[in-house]
Design a protein that fits this description.
- The structure is a single chain.
- With 298 residues, this protein is mostly helical.
- 83% of the residues lie in helices and 0% in strands.
- The chain has 13 helices and no strands.
- The chain has helices at residues 2-8, 10-40, 46-68, 76-109, 119-146, 149-171, 173-177, 183-210, 212-218, 222-234, 240-273, 276-285, 291-294.
- α5 crosses α8 (183-210).
- The radius of gyration is 25 Å and the shape is globular.
Length: 298
């Protein structure tokens, strides 16, 4: 009964699949932000943090590429550009995650506070990070829809690793020299590496089936998931409006997805009705010799 209902409502089931995967990515992003903030409390080295992710991606998906022994479907220099914007989007995101999550927690606890010491610089970093993320998402969506998903992830991992290795000695050398590796720091790095590996693994699939717009809309709930994670770990209280906001955001994403699917279906039908094959069949059915095809039997 339930399986037949899902088959009859294939469009609706696809929407639920997209919503579920979108929220899975959003929750995983919240875990990434949480683990990166834990690492930032002990050492400020966002590039080194991202290096663990790119290294894991290069090893796992690069091994699959070597096993396939196939040529690249996209020129390597495009992957260098894609990896560059991805690395710097992650860099700015990791720099801002600690301070942004701290402000979220302060607002949840009802603690007042002034603005940042450099609000203009903070706004610029947010805009720059959003720009890099947007470029990365659009480029990744194009590659996974037109080419091979495994290749895209492997090349982002490989060239992302090379970009971070080239920039770490310039930006984080002094920080690494004074770094004290503790159990908590290693755990934070490991948690970030695993969660970000899952993020990069799931995101291309989500982009392939839903697109960049719906993907970015799904990420609107990541801050709410971050608050839920903090609440679960630190037993902090959250105002009920957060739950209401979460429901409203998910409902809005559902309405957008449903409207988009209906618009796509209508456009497909309209294109089909104007196709030469459809017009030819319509002319044949309306010809004088074919009245019996459409007239009812006596």
């Amino acid at each position: 009964m339930s399986s037949s209902w899902w088959r009859k409502n294939e469009g609706l089931s696809k929407i639920f699949l997209e919503l579920g995967l979108g929220q899975l990515v959003s929750f995983d992003l919240a875990i990434m932000q949480f683990t990166s903030s834990l690492a930032a409390t002990q050492v400020d080295a966002p590039l080194t943090l991202s290096l663990s992710t790119y290294l894991l991606l290069a090893v796992v998906y690069g091994s699959i590429m070597l096993y396939r022994r196939q040529k690249l479907l996209v020129p390597w220099y495009w992957y260098v550009l894609l990896a560059f914007v991805d690395v710097h989007g992650n860099y700015l995101g990791n720099v801002l995650s600690y301070s942004c999550l701290g402000l979220v927690l302060l607002s949840d606890a009802g603690v007042g506070g002034g603005g940042g010491s450099k609000p203009i610089l903070g706004d610029f970093l947010v805009i720059a990070g959003s720009f890099f993320y947007a470029m990365s998402n659009v480029g990744e969506e194009f590659c996974v829809k037109k080419k091979d998903r495994i290749e895209v992830i492997a090349m982002i991992g490989l060239f992302g690793m090379l970009v971070t290795v080239a920039e770490i000695p310039v930006l984080e050398r002094k920080t690494l020299e004074s770094m004290n590796w503790s159990t908590g720091l290693i755990s934070a790095y490991a948690g970030y590496a695993v969660s970000s590996f899952l993020f990069y693994t799931i995101v291309p699939f989500v982009l392939q089936i839903s697109g960049t717009t719906l993907f970015n809309l799904s990420l609107l709930t990541s801050d709410m998931w971050a608050v839920a994670v903090r609440t679960f770990i630190y037993k902090q209280k959250v105002d009920w409006l957060y739950y209401l906001a979460f429901v409203l955001v998910v409902l809005g994403i559902f309405i957008y997805s449903k409207t988009e699917k209906d618009a796509d279906s209508n456009s497909v039908l309209e294109e089909a009705s104007h196709s030469p094959e459809y017009c030819l069949i319509d002319e044949e059915n309306s010809s004088p010799g074919n009245e019996f095809l459409t007239s009812p039997r006596n």
